[in-house]
Design goal:
Distance between the termini: 31 Å
Oligomer: single chain
Structural class: alpha/beta
Largest sheet: 5 strands, parallel
Strand order of the largest sheet: 3-2-1-4-5
Number of strands: 11
Radius of gyration: 27 Å
Helix content: 40-55%
Number of helices: 13
Shape: globular
Strand content: 5-15%
């Protein structure tokens, strides 16, 4: 899964972030081109286009952490999804046969192995190079609070920066602070300037609340005659953030706290993938949809399609299409969710709901631009109005278009949510999807959806 806070590389981004973003896509493209060249294939437009698509699917690259087996598992799963998506796309479009089979086999097998070896090599080599060339730095953190401790942990785990935290400064008494045995309280704010001048300190992280602005301004003034690098860590980052990033408006820096993951190029990639996939799927399933439409028409009185008001992106109302599976078409202020034994469901409707075939017309919604193939499932407007008052952050899921399938559905939260805690879990998974979105995650959800539909017990 891709890391949160991903964005296009900008001029001010650190070298470490650039390397982390670029390693996987470079390995993926490099393995393809080297494999083709090794087998005597000319690197023509077809291979360049495939390289560009593969780069788009894997950028910004993942950077697995943890033990070797955990890293290997994450790399393998991510690559299987990406490679599988490319193979399926090539087969459907008829372009798969244009590439040498042996090249694709080598590419599919060698890429995860090479990525794992490069990743392990970098993690072993970079710290040694930094020590060899005396790149290791010393830093201090101002604020022995929750944010300061979290920052200290993250800095210690970032092997690219190789920064040793000498300790904390805080004006509160030591007995009020949660200083662990391996951490040091070096003094109060008035001692910072003197400590920096008398010790080798390269970096200062200010993790004080925004309310401490006068103290921060006084401190910055005291540090003007030093060469120390100073970073301010806003205390907003202790909160639950959705796609946080730093941006600017005509030169004025701003911090996005809650934003859609489909910002800029990501939004374009998402829209293109939705339109292409939805068009291909509708082309393939059109005979099946025609048969279902005939079956619905003759199984019970009523329209073939059931249209219900739902909330779309930014909470705007949309009409969502489904094959009618009930004897009623409810779209009022009070809508009862389908239950395990529900007399409103027709015999054909029960089959359609069980297999999720009733959702197929929603691919038309995708072509209309009202829905995505993958995203938080849309709820009836009446349910939205009820749950938005009961679940914190409920409406944040509407920062993106609703989806035909989603992260919550492949984790078992599909069908009736008869208790509040089940809906809370569903919303939690929806927000996780917003934090961690990538095209690879979308492909993984689509593949998982097929398995869920075949064995699911929650659809009725």
């Amino acid at each position: 899964m891709r890391q949160p806070f991903t964005r296009l590389i900008r001029g001010g981004e650190s070298i470490s972030s650039l390397v982390k973003h670029m390693v996987e896509p470079v390995v993926v493209v490099g393995t393809l081109l080297l494999g083709a060249a090794a087998l005597g294939e000319s690197i023509d437009q077809l291979y360049l286009i495939l390289s560009l698509i593969a780069f788009s699917l894997t950028f910004p690259g993942s950077w697995p952490e943890g033990r070797y087996w955990k890293m290997a598992n994450q790399i393998f799963v991510s690559w299987v999804v990406t490679f599988g998506l490319l193979v399926v796309f090539g087969y459907v479009t008829g372009t798969l046969s244009m590439f040498l089979f042996d090249v694709l086999v080598i590419w599919g097998v060698a890429t995860p192995i090479l990525f794992f070896l490069v990743l392990v090599g970098l993690k072993k080599m970079v710290p040694r190079l930094k020590v060899l060339f005396a790149y290791k730095k010393r830093g201090i953190i101002l604020g022995a609070n929750e944010l300061g401790h979290k920052l200290a942990t993250n800095v210690s785990q970032d092997f690219f920066r190789q920064i040793e935290i000498a300790g904390f400064f805080d004006d509160r008494a030591e007995d009020r602070l949660k200083i662990s045995p391996h951490e040091k309280l070096l003094g109060n704010m008035g001692d910072v300037a003197g400590y920096v001048k008398n010790n080798v300190i390269d970096v200062i992280y200010i993790a004080l609340p925004m309310a401490s602005q006068p103290r921060v301004l006084k401190l910055l003034d005291d540090l003007r005659d030093t060469t120390v690098s100073i970073y301010f860590v806003p205390d907003i980052f202790i909160y639950d953030l959705i796609q946080a990033r730093v941006d600017e408006v005509n030169g004025v820096p701003i911090v996005a706290i809650c934003e859609t993951p489909f910002y800029g190029v990501n939004g374009l990639l998402k829209q293109i993938s939705d339109i292409v996939c939805a068009a291909l799927i509708l082309l393939l399933i059109s005979p099946l949809m025609l048969l279902i439409a005939i079956g619905v028409k003759f199984s019970s009185p009523g329209p073939v399609l059931f249209k219900q008001r739902r909330y779309g992106v930014d909470g705007r109302e949309i009409l969502v299409y489904k094959f009618r599976s009930m004897t009623v078409c409810e779209d009022g202020h009070h809508i009862k969710q389908a239950q395990l034994v529900d007399k409103r469901v027709t015999k054909l409707g029960a089959v359609l709901r069980k297999t999720s075939l009733d959702e197929l017309p929603q691919f038309i919604n995708v072509l209309e631009g009202k829905m995505s193939i993958v995203g938080p499932r849309p709820h009836a407007v009446s349910h939205n109005e009820m749950y938005r008052k009961m679940i914190k952050g409920y409406m944040v899921r509407h920062k993106v278009k609703p989806g035909i399938t989603g992260w919550a559905q492949v984790h078992g939260f599909r069908g009736e949510t008869e208790t509040l805690d089940k809906m809370e879990k569903r919303v939690q998974y929806d927000l996780d999807y917003l934090r961690n979105w990538s095209l690879t995650l979308d492909a993984w959800i689509i593949l998982k959806t097929v398995g869920v539909v075949l064995r699911d017990r929650h659809a009725y």
